[in-house]
Amino acid sequence: MTDQEIKNKIKTEEYFVNMGPQHPAAHGVLRLLLTIDGEIIKNVEPDLGYIHRSIEKMSERDSYQQIVHLTDRMDYLSSNINNEAVCLTVEKALEIEVSDRVKVIRTIISELTRIASHCLWWGVMGMDLGALTTYFYAFRDREMINDIFEETCGARLTMNYNAPGGLMYDIHPNFVKRTKDFIKHFKTKIPEYDRLLTGNIIFQKRTKGVGVLTKEDAISYGATGPVGRGSGFSCDVRKHHIYSAYDRVDFKEALLTEGDTFARYQVRIMELWESISIIEQLIDNIPEGSVKEPTKAVIKLPKGEFYQRVETARGELGVYINSTGTKNPYRVKFRSPGFSNLSVLNHIAKGSKIADLVATMASFDFVIPDIDR
Amino acid sequence: MKNEDLQNIINGLGENLEFTTEESEFLNVLVPKEQLHAVCSELKSNPELKFDYAFCITGMDWGKELGVIYHLNSTEFQHEIVVKVKTEDRENPTLDSVHDIWQTAEFHELEIYDFFGIKFNNHPKLRRLFLTPDWEGYPLRKDYVDEANMIIK
Questions:
Q1: Integer Cα distance of A24 and A366 in angstroms
Q2: Tell me, what's the pLDDT at A115?
């Protein structure tokens, strides 16, 4: 028999491998059931629920102020943006117009949150691909943002700084100075990030052309955030459905068309620069005004359906509230960016190798509580 | 495109469609469940509508009926509508799957099956996504009772 005939005759049997629920590259408890032929992935079946708390059901028995606190625990890296989403929905329903001061502070805090989230992602992306150093570089810078948050709202991760009608309290007197110091510091660090990881030939070989997602599929699967924008899907909520103070700043939507893992990486690096630019435009001109519009102690939304979306660090977060006019919502749905982004994983991982799946997952930046809710 | 123009076009896509803009910022279209798949595929393929992005798919229990709410967006024209479909059968609720139109629906329909027990025709693999396979009942239904795990006020 020739070699080719032997190859045709001998076949490896397809088998199943559990990736997770405790796999380090999942950054949480995500279980993927892989169907594998040798090292080639034939199918990826996500199995969720390891950290499912049914926040949607809990919201049905809570007041609107309480729901804000639950949303911290979804995407805990964008906790402030999640809070803002619920507050904006409630304010839209009650037709409350918050002051310019609140809008600007919310925007600055949201962008700081985005930088902190992207820092963590950048660190673990390098770590997933074997470059442990990135983790320490990123956490050094992220720590400065956490310190700013700690000073202003007392918490480092689950901030609860937004409340329906405005903010819990005003910013700390040091906030402006420390934020400026951070921006000055961080501007010198992104080029360092580029030198350390972006230009690394091993990193580029492992990410370029890996996990390619086309624009049509990104739209059809509802892949938003840097995942969608890496494929050329213009889906930045800050541009298309302007909220808070994004109408008074000038920034570009980071958009690339390659659709591979490296493109998603570059989009996030570009977003870091844009976030810095947004903060710089606002930080010197925080208007005076009240930080909290008066709301009733028991908030009752009018009867109807309300939908509000915001751009978290992972993509489009939608909040759907169906109210019957009582103090509790009748139904709350969180359209989480991670859940929709996860749905595309099987499609782009088919036919690739297991190691490439790790690289692809790293560029998706999954936060499991955001998927499970 | 304005809601009135959208309504005129969509009205021709099916029979007995009900339109309303009350209590919502979007144009709401209630589609009879038999026509769901046909209307949805027209919504996506019609050159004047092109609703190619289903940005939110919500399972719903209205008390009497179960159903699904589709928030749709056109990435080209940036117009948006909400499609609703209802079924009164609470014992064995069945709707058509739209995963072949918007692929994100495949995952969202699993979530809705898990929490509301709505079965979807032609879904590639209907399974419990969040809860364990032997879980009894559908927790997000309004008549679901679990005295051990739920705090009832």
A1: 12
A2: 92
Comparing C-alpha atoms, which of A249, A235, A245 is closest to residue A312? A235
Please indicate if any CB of chain B lies within 8 Å of the CB of A66. Answer: no
Q: Which of A122, A166, A112, A138 is nearest to A290 (CA)?
A: A166
Q: Which pLDDT belongs to residue B151?
A: 65
- Report ipTM for this prediction: 0.89
Contact A259, A230 (CB under 8 A): yes
Q: Look up residue B107 and give its two tokens.
A: 């995952």
Q: How many residues does chain B have?
A: 153
Q: From the CA of A26, how many Å to the nearest CA of chain B?
A: 17
Total domains in chain A come to 1
More confident of the two residues A148 and A1: A148
Domain of A216: which CATH number? 1.10.645.10
How close, in Å, is residue B63 to chain A by CA atoms? 10
Residues 6+ away with beta carbon under 8 Å from A150? A156
CB distance from A222 to chain B under 8 Å?
yes
d(CA B76, CA B56): 18
Q: Of the candidates A178, A130, A184, which has an alpha carbon nearest to the alpha carbon of residue A152?
A: A178
pLDDT tens-digit profile of A48-74? 888 888 888 888 888 888 888 888 888
Q: Looking at the DSSP assignment, which residues form a beta bridge with residue A159?
A: none
At residue A94, the pLDDT reads 87
Give A309 to chain B, closest Cα distance, Å: 10
* pLDDT of amino acid B50: 85
User: What residues in chain B have their Cβ under 8 A from chain A's Cβ atoms?
Assistant: 22-26, 52-56, 58-61, 69, 71, 75, 78, 82, 102-104, 106-108, 111, 115, 129-132, 139-140, 151, 153
Beta strands in B1-148 (DSSP E): 18-20, 27-30, 53-61, 66-73, 80-87, 94-96, 119-121
Considering chain A, what is the average pLDDT of its residues? 87
Q: Which residues of B touch A340 (CB under 8 A)?
A: 104, 107-108
B63: left (phi over 0), alpha (psi -120 to 50) or beta: left
Closest by CA to A343, choosing from A22, A32, A26, is A32
pTM assigned to the model: 0.88
The residue range of the domain holding A312 is: 3-372
Domains of chain B, each with CATH number or no CATH = 3-121 (3.30.460.80)
Residue B152 or residue A28, greater confidence: A28
For residue A55, the chain B residue with the least C-alpha distance is B140
The b/e string for A28-39 (b: 16+ C-beta within 10 A; e otherwise) is bbbbbebebeee
pLDDT in tens, chain B (153 residues): 777 777 777 777 777 778 887 888 888 888 888 888 888 888 888 888 888 888 889 998 888 888 999 999 888 888 888 999 988 888 888 888 888 888 888 889 999 998 988 988 888 888 888 888 888 888 888 888 877 777 665
A/B interface, count of CB pairs below 8 Å: 85
